């Protein structure tokens, strides 16, 4: 593969999956029957949804697991790990006034689905296509289902004729963020491999993020609506988002080798005279390329929003093993499309660095207080999005790529649903086959992909 490799995905090949059965898997031992508090970071509109992950496993070299059925191994381990993560075996419900969500620890369990297909893993490619048939790898409740009616945790293990298998996992985002979900899956994998104790203890402690009298609303928080969802107040093209259909979108994937990344980063470091992370540089590049490709007018206000782990921003830091939502959306704002497109890349990197630096404990505690003061209970359908807002997620170091149930690490770990949830997003993933570099995936309308490719190549 070249140092910069771009792929478009338009294949019409279909996947056919047969569901063989489903069962509710409860914890292996009784869990405490109680109701648990969800923090305001767990319970605002942007996380009142599910996020889905696909982990793809080859039928690797012969080992002790080669003759075992991954369905049985994972299902049995799931029951055991839920004894440590018992809230995931409960149900989310609303408080009496309907303004907030909480967890009822019922011990009902997680939904586990067994499936098979006569296809081979080669059909999946690198899981970058928006193929409707791929949704069969994740059990789907109707979109109209109420939050109380859907288990917080849903598993589906699909075996392929080639001997490989795919683990599809759907989490209620209110109970955990990406790092917390990966921690849970790593714990599950440890038990599947025969460990008797988790290497990282599961920590709930959502009360640590309750609104605190010491931390009142000290910032304006323009990024937060009363609903608790981040939206661009200057957005002028929101209505256009609703008119874009899934079949009009394409996922464009670019592989940037470590050498290419270093060649981009070095002059920026020299100009700014300070350390710049690969994330900051790549985010600046992707933001500029997306802005150009979507043809956003240069005088329009634009923003880049990306999650920052704030576990260590608190004093003391949140406990190791805390698996709740402890990420906050940093927001590079107060800029125009023209500044992002025509300014130096170093300037864009600096904006991103400043957005990250602003997320200290005082700011996050202030936002928690703000959400408490403005709390309401709208649904996801109330959310407005616009092309001027770019949403970026970085999955490279969350831990999904290290989830080994005994058959080795996944060859692909992909946040499928996120790439179709927030309008025209950007994702950074680890490349397959242990290549050194970053796989950058952008979701754009088909009409914009040529402009996107041209801009990416001009920047690297």
Concise description?
This protein is 23% helix and 23% strand. With 460 residues, the protein is an alpha+beta fold. The protein has a seven-stranded mixed beta sheet. A six-stranded mixed beta sheet has the order 2-7-8-9-4-14, covered by helices on one side.
Spatially, the strands of the biggest sheet line up as 1-10-16-15-13-11-12
Summed up, the helix count is 9
Query: What's the mean pLDDT score?
Result: 87
Query: Span between N and C termini?
Result: 16 Å
Work out the helicity level.
Answer: 10-25%
Order of helices and strands: EEEEHEEEEEHHEHHEEHHHEEEEH
Low-pLDDT stretches are 226-231, 236-240
Percent in strands: 15-25%
Rg, Å, rounded: 22 Å
Shape: globular
Tell how many strands the DSSP assignment holds.
Answer: 16
Major sheet, described briefly? 7 strands, mixed
The secondary-structure class comes to alpha+beta
Describe the fold and architecture.
The chain starts with a strand and ends with a helix. A hairpin with a 6-residue loop joins β5 (91-94) and β6 (101-104). The protein is built from 9 helices and 16 strands. Helices cover 23% and strands 23% of the residues. The strands form 3 sheets. Strands 1-10-16-15-13-11-12 form a 7-stranded mixed β-sheet. The chain has a 6-stranded mixed β-sheet with strand order 2-7-8-9-4-14, with helices on one face. The protein has a 3-stranded antiparallel β-sheet with strand order 3-6-5, with no helix packed on it. It has 460 residues and is of the alpha+beta class. α1 crosses α2.
